[in-house]
Structure formats: C-alpha cells, structure tokens
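Sequence, please.
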C-alpha cells in the first residue's frame, strides 16, 4: 500500500528530521499551525487515520470523535493520562507511547530543579543580570548534598532520580502503590508521613488514576523547611493550595516543570522568588526527542502494516 495515502494529524511540532520522515511517508496535517482548527478538521477529519501527539496534550474525546477513521494515537511521551484509553479501546483505536528513552532526561531535570530551587540559582542569575551583585544581598541557600529525598512514584523515572540522588549522598525514601522490596530505599505507604520526614518531595508518579496526591495536608506535612519538585503532572498537585502554602511560607519553595492547565502558570507562582519554573521541558532535548520520534515512526508503521505496534499500551 502507498503510505502516502494515509492522513496523519499532528497536534504539536516534532523535530525537523522526524517531521521530514513523516512527510515522506504520510499526508501530514498540522493542527497546531491552524488559527481555525475546526476548519481543518471539517476538511480532513474524516480521512485522518493517525494522530501524533504529546503526553501532556494527548487527545480529547471530543477531538477523537471528529476522527471516524482513526486507527492509532501515537503519543510522543510516556503519559497516557490525557487520552481516555477506554474510549479509544471502545473504538478499536490503538494507543502507543515512547517508554524508556526519556527516563534519563526527566530525572536529570528533576535534579536540576532540586539544585536550582534549593540553591536559589534563578534568583542569583536574575541578580547578576540585573547588575545588582554587590548591591543586593541574596541571603544563604539550602544545602543540597545529604538531604532526605522523598520520591513519589518509584517507576523508571523515580528510580533514575534515586540513582542520581545517591551520588549527592541523599537519603532516599519513596511512596507508591506498592512497596518494592529490594529497591534499597525506605518505603513509606502514607504520603503525609513521607512528606513529614523529608526535606524535598519529588513527584515522578503517573497521573493515569486522575488523583490529586499533593493535598493541603501533604503540603502542611512538608512544612516551612520543605520543598516540592514536580516533573510528573501538574494535576497531581492541588495548585491553589500550593500557591497559598508558598505565599504564606508554609513550605520553603518549589521547582515545577508541570502545571495543571499548561501553558497557563498562575501569576502568583511567577511572582514568587522561591519557585523555579520550567515550561514542561522534562524530555525536551534534541537527542531524546529524536529517539522518541523514531519510536513514533515505528509505531505508526507497524499499525498501518496491520501489525501490533511495538509500544502499544
Ligand atoms: C512531554 C511528557 O510533554 O512523556 C510525557 O508524558 O509529558 C513529556 O515527555 C511530551 O510528551 C512531549 O511531546
């Protein structure tokens, strides 16, 4: 079959070379380039057989339902929380992800946010850039090496964070659905108790269950000397409670790569100095995005060849 007859919908950009490979094999339609997406959907929606999207963006049921010929949702990412898997299954639509290749990047960013937040790198940089060195006293930071680190979700990313944290002499505890005997880290079944016992709580859990893990109570337990770092999903946190806790000094600071309603970031968070912010950059390195793109291409190819895609969820 001539693959060029297959119509694909891209909800967000992919690296140039991956885009070129998609264009060589498929009819590519770019939803993100359209000011009037409904116009594009009215025109090509009935022909679309594949969607390429990101983990955070996913695909709404409303959009899925405008694509009657859809066979595959190829996620460039690991999170499936923004796709209704049951709805997709009921339509016989396959969903694929790109596991493994982004683990190191996300763990690296978690360490970056821990260091940036505790050592106040953003504030220091702003002070230097603003020409205020020697005029304004930044105050002392929080030592990173040797802290007690609580990891929420000891999956691939959580384990990669633990491995890196060990090199910083951090003592590691974790919370998750199950204890993982043999991990070598302290398990704490109660998230409030974990928050109470650590200096930094880092979120690396999946949001598939739709649950808010970091509640007011968890933030209270983290306390005025505790920090929250999130490289998983914004919706795992009660964002309003987080803003309040930060404003009132009931936690010490936060390092955030993800937010409830991206790309919206509550203005209060942008105003707070003790917060490090990133625009969802966990897997955003060229090397990793190329590997993710290659997996997306394999998954699409297998699906349209009538085979089981290698990374079907
Ligand atoms: C990116 C992610 O947002 O893997 C995920 O679930 O959230 C990130 O890697 C994204 O998927 C990039 O397309």
């Amino acid at each position: 079959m001539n693959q060029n007859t297959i119509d694909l919908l891209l909800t967000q950009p992919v690296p140039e070379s991956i885009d070129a490979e998609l264009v060589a094999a498929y009819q590519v339609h770019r939803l993100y380039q359209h000011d009037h997406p409904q116009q594009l959907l009215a025109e090509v929606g009935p022909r679309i057989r594949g969607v390429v999207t990101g983990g955070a963006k996913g695909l709404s049921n409303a959009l899925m339902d405008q694509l009657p010929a859809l066979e595959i949702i190829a996620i460039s990412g690991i999170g499936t929380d923004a796709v209704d898997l049951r709805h997709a299954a009921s339509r016989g639509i396959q969903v694929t992800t790109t596991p493994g290749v982004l683990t190191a990047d996300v763990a690296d960013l978690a360490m970056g946010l821990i260091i940036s937040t505790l050592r106040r790198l953003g504030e220091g940089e702003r002070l230097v850039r603003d020409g205020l060195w020697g005029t304004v006293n930044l105050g002392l930071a929080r030592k990173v090496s040797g802290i007690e680190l609580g990891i929420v979700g000891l999956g691939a990313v959580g384990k990669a964070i633990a491995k890196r944290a060990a090199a910083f002499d951090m003592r590691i505890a974790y919370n998750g659905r199950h204890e993982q005997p043999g991990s070598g880290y302290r398990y704490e079944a109660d998230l409030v108790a974990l928050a109470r016992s650590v200096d930094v709580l880092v979120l690396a859990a999946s949001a598939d269950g739709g649950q808010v893990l970091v509640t007011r109570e968890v933030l209270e337990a983290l306390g005025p000397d505790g920090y929250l770092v999130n490289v998983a999903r914004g919706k795992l946190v009660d964002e309003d409670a987080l803003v309040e806790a930060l404003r009132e000094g009931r936690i010490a600071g936060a390092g955030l790569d993800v937010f409830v309603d991206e790309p919206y970031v509550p203005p209060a968070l942008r105003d707070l100095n003790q917060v490090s912010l990133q625009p969802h950059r966990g897997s955003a390195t060229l090397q990793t995005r190329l590997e993710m793109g290659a997996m997306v291409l394999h998954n699409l190819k297998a699906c349209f060849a009538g085979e089981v895609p290698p990374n079907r969820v």
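The first helix runs from residue 16 to 25.
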